[in-house]
Design brief:
Number of strands: 8
Number of helices: 11
Radius of gyration: 19 Å
Strand order of the largest sheet: 1-2-3-4-5-6-7-8
Strand content: 15-25%
Shape: globular
Order of helices and strands: EHEHHEHEHEHEHHEHEHH
Distance between the termini: 42 Å
Bound molecules: erythose-4-phosphate
Helix content: 40-55%
Structural class: alpha/beta
């Protein structure tokens, strides 16, 4: 399973990249808003420049999201985003307009990520429209007492049934158990916040074992 980091924070991306386990990055407008220091002066040009900086840090797909509800505008924004770098993947919402944009962009050879996916039918539509990736949001489903990982299982099964090539990105990951379940289900990718990536390495028995090994290592002199 590939690991993407779910952030627009350059320092977090650098740190995750230094671990040697990073395959790509996903962003969305809310993640972009978090890194903006002066909202009054942040322009579209600044946004595009930020996406370019992310592409320079990671050699893998970087999802950048459109910021409009209109299909024609999504197509225009998508082409602009794709022109930044070969690794840019254009994120479009799973709406009727989003589907039109995904179809248009995929026909132009631009990779797309269908986002805000909450049902198997939306995932089928994304694949039929030619999306390169589909992003079911597991944490937001869990938040409303609906099992997010069950949706991932359904999408993986449906895509397998028909040999659909769209890759499944488990999104809205909140904790390490989401990552384990993604891998068990056979999702292609989990996009994970930096804090959760760090949590993956933790185990109290590792800490306890290491403490004892370090104490006993004192026997080795020189
Ligand atoms: C990534 O593609 C999604 O936009 C992101 O995982 C959403 O996460 P959230 O539900 O924690 O905002």
């Amino acid at each position: 399973m590939k690991f993407f980091i779910d952030t627009a924070n350059l320092e977090e991306i650098r740190l995750a990249e230094s671990l040697g386990v990073l395959d790509g990055v996903t962003t969305n407008p809310s993640l972009i808003a978090k890194i903006v220091e002066d909202p009054a002066s942040f322009t579209r040009r600044d946004f595009l420049a930020h996406i370019e900086r992310i592409c320079q840090l990671v050699d893998g797909p970087v999802s950048a999201e459109v910021t409009t509800l209109d299909a024609e505008e999504m197509m225009r924004e998508g082409e602009e985003l794709a022109a930044i770098h070969k690794n840019v993947v254009v994120k479009c919402p799973l709406t009727i307009d989003g589907l039109k944009a995904i179809r248009h962009l995929s026909e132009k050879g631009i990779r797309t990520n269908a986002t805000l996916v909450f049902s198997p039918n939306q995932a089928i539509l994304a694949a039929k429209a030619g999306a390169s990736y589909v992003s079911p949001f597991v944490g937001r489903l869990d938040d409303i007492s609906t099992e997010g990982m069950a949706l991932v299982g359904q999408i993986v099964e449906i895509y397998d049934n028909y040999g659909l090539m769209t890759e499944v990105i488990v999104a809205s990951v909140r904790h390490p158990q989401h990552v384990v379940e993604s891998a068990l289900i056979g999702a292609d990718i989990a996009t994970i916040p930096y804090g959760v990536i760090r949590q993956l390495a933790n185990h109290p028995l590792t800490d306890a074992g290491l403490k004892k090994f370090m104490e006993d290592a004192a026997v080795i002199k020189g």
